[in-house]
Amino acid sequence: MKSIQLLLTGFGGLIATAAAQTTASKPLPLDEMVVRAEREKALTVPTTEDSREELAKTPGGTEVIDSERYLTGRASTMADTFALSPGVVAQSRFGSDESRISIRGSGLQRTFHGRGIRVLQDGIPINLADGGFDMQSLEPTATDHINIWRGGNALAYGSSTLGGAIDYISRNGRNSPGGLFRIEAGSYDYLRATVAGGLADETTDAYASFTQQYQEGFRDHAEQNNQRLFTNFGWKISDTIENRLYFSAVNTDSELPGALSKDDLENDPSKANPDNIAKDQHRDFQLYRIANKTSFVNGDNTWDLTAAWTYKDLDHPIFQTIDQVSNDALLGVTFVNSSDLFAHENNVRAGLLFTYGKTRAAQFLNLNGERGAKVLENDQIATNFEAFAEDQFTLGKGFSAIIGGSYAHNRRELDQILGTPDSYDYSYNQFAPKVGMRWDGNDLQVFANVSGSYEPPSFSETYTANTARDAQTATSFEIGTRGMRNFFRWDVTAYHAEIENELLTIVDPITNSSTTTNADQTTHTGIEVGAEIDLLGQSWKDMPDHRVVFRSAWTYGKFEFDRHSTDTYDYSGNKIAGLPPHLIRGELVWENSSGWYAGPTFEWVPVESYIDHRNTTTADPYALVGFKLGQRKEKGISWFIEAKNLTDEHYASTYNVLDTFNPSAPTQYLPGDGRSVYAGLQWNW
Predict the structure, then answer these.
(1) pLDDT tens digits along 175-212
(2) By C-alpha distance, which of 498, 497, 503 is closest to 456?
(3) 343 phi and psi, to 5 degrees?
(4) What's the CATH code of the domain at 459?
(5) What is the pLDDT of residue 10?
């Protein structure tokens, strides 16, 4: 299980060599308008500016996050990374990498091992073949920027899921030459250190990043110890052909403190669930990933050929000890053409993606933390073939039309060796279309679209004989605007999704047990608002010495059962549990042209949220206040100090999702961290 350490040692030389290269690093966010000599770009990896230009063509909710935004404070969890992202709900389970992450209500029942979003690295999916993904397989400090397509706006990138796609764009030897050392430390014995470096010459470039993270945790039995290695090597074969090889290795060990009752949440939130301690519950795994991307550019045509292989070894003692070893393979091709059509600008993007994964899954009795007898063993095989295409045609007078869609054929096979459920073999076929319109004015854009989405159940949803067997499908309607006027920048989107066979935890009428099944008809309606206001009234086109900026992201969602009933209960009209209706995050920060910044941060959930689909029990509203200050520099020493939850609020950062709350089983709430302080130092050279 510790063979990863040998691999990390082997890559140490690459890190050290890269760190010795001395050159300027990325410009600060306040310097975005400065004219600089353009560094030669990689063909396989877009720059931040390229991504902003590309995503701005999408007639729907998108965002590009520059890593400089989240590196101003602690950069550990997805809640840190997406704190100012409208539409992205990321709630840490217990100050850990494991989070509930959801876009537009996708996978809202999961507080671990995400579902409902396609997650990529430089355009190559990291999801396993059945659709699941692990938060620990991502590293924010090894990332240059992050692209987000919310909902059906990711169809052109092969994602047909309700939540859309998130693409982590890697640092490489061309966009991040030189060395980097970053260390973060703080409350609950938190320590996170990264050493990284990149180098490049005329034909090759390389980048390597190694991160060690440890924390005791706010709660008992919440220790984490993680190591992550991310590397890539680019070879410019000619002026029009480039190949990039990726290797990543992850070792993660996480104790699980479990859920508490509301009384314990309010009175002693740092305690662990006694059953989690008795069974020594953990989620530990090793993951290795090799991927390759080759880009060919021929005039207005670009071809990307991708391939990947992922190995994962999971050791997960919970109510039983889950032992899984999986191997997943991927092959893909994407074609882009930007030639004019009938004397009008036109852009075509199309692709094919094949993925195959096989998991040998076993379960053992958990005898007070020790493995007992084997009670289950099976082989889980997922096969997917996906085809997608989108055309963006410029009509004139600022209008552009978009039409596209994706087709998927998916197969889920389970070969039972020991225990239940019985073997099964299911196939799914679905086409998801998209039609949209975009109008571009002077620093203003208005858009609308109608899109389909589709998601077959993962093996977690098809675990027992009477659970989800149908694919979840939806039709979404969306309208919005983004732009800039003087001192105000905005991004506003409203959507409504009509869903059939949504994958939800409901009491099964045959087994009378709570399990994931297909709800008949549900709706998801929401508003996503991102805003930046310079309170000094200075235009975002100017370069002032000082700004006072209010930034905020408001995510509103109303998720309801439109029509669903069983022999014992009619859910129609009920709210779907899992996410707060309102999540508001933001900051009020003074910034200056020398990179200094200081100001308060906040997170506000103003109303109760249901934890059960029968709407009998809620999680309480809460408000958190923090503060951060520091200085970011292109070269030399950057630093920060960040305080979180200054009022020491006792609150549930997230919670289990139930069909109905049973007072005899009240432990359903996952407390957020108490008052804490973190400091960090980063050296770029």
Answers:
(1) 999 999 999 999 999 999 999 999 999 999 999 999 99
(2) 503
(3) 65, 20
(4) 2.40.170.20
(5) 38
